[in-house]
Specification:
Blueprint lengths: L2 H25 L3 E7 L5 H9 L7 E4 L6 H4 L5 H4 L8 E5 L8 H4 L5 H20 L3 E8 L2 H13 L9 H6 L3 H15 L6 E5 L3 H15 L37
Parallel strand pairs: 1-3, 1-4, 2-3, 4-5
């Protein structure tokens, strides 16, 4: 999809996302969205499509690093609980507690017993969130291996994207089938009536973002809340230029 067509399609949805955020703030609703998928699927771009025009004080992006030694001794869900939203907030998880059923399982960071316990507990944990009033949305971004290889190569060749290429990404290249098996096991255990999964094709990332945002908006209740009336009166004088009582070096990037 061309960038021009993508931006034209996303523009009205951005207005709906802003309205959704105003509704959440007004009603005290709590919203959680999980973004899961293979490496290079496009989670970061999808999260930006949702959050870009929202107030960062209200819409929080959570992308946790690997657990610390102390966190390894906690209840598994504990470090995620502290990031759940308060009233009026939106939390977008760039990977979530489902790490245990994906990368931790495939790369051997969690034992079979730990993975089995997670798959048993996750539906109950999510039922508690939903029963408490949180709106929970779980998205899995799908991508074929050929497309994944193309994006990994792009990261390698682009110095602005090189930081995205981790040793785990490279090690995962030979584990495509193992990740597929882990995903299918995870979906079978955690696709529930109260917290269903939605799979979105991200082989074309722009089309995938539009599909995901549209689906998210369509699954929310009526979010129409009229914006507050703001009276913007005339200033009543000529605008003033900025001035300084203590003159220091003023940076000025040369143009032309």
């Amino acid at each position: 999809m061309k960038r021009k067509d993508y931006e034209a399609a996303l523009k009205p949805m951005r207005a709906e996302l802003v309205a959704m955020a105003r509704w959440a703030r007004t009603t005290g609703q709590r919203i959680v969205v999980l973004f899961e998928g293979r490496d290079t699927a496009g989670k970061g771009g999808a999260i930006r499509a949702v959050s870009e025009k929202l107030n960062p004080r209200q819409c929080h992006i959570v992308a946790l690093a690997k657990p610390t030694e102390a966190e390894r001794t906690q209840w598994y869900f504990q470090r995620y609980v502290q990031h759940l939203p308060c009233a009026g907030e939106i939390v977008l998880f760039d990977r979530s507690w489902y790490n245990r059923a994906g990368v931790e399982k495939v790369m051997g960071y969690a034992s079979e017993a730990e993975v089995a316990q997670f798959l048993q507990q996750a539906p109950t944990f999510e039922r508690m969130l939903v029963d408490d009033g949180i709106l929970l949305f779980k998205y899995w971004l799908t991508t074929d291996q050929a497309r994944q290889e193309e994006r990994l190569r792009e990261r390698l060749d682009d110095p602005l994207k090189r930081w995205k290429l981790s040793p785990i990404d490279l090690a995962a290249r030979g584990q495509y089938d193992a990740y597929t098996e882990a995903r299918e096991t995870m979906l079978a255990a955690t696709h529930t009536e109260w917290a269903p999964w939605t799979l979105v094709d991200f082989n074309d990332q722009k089309h995938g973002r539009l599909t995901l945002v549209r689906d998210l908006l369509d699954r929310l209740p009526d979010t129409h809340v009229a914006p507050p009336e703001i009276e913007f009166s005339e200033l009543g004088r000529e605008p003033k230029a900025e001035h300084y009582s203590v003159l220091g070096p003023i940076a000025d990037y040369p143009l032309g």
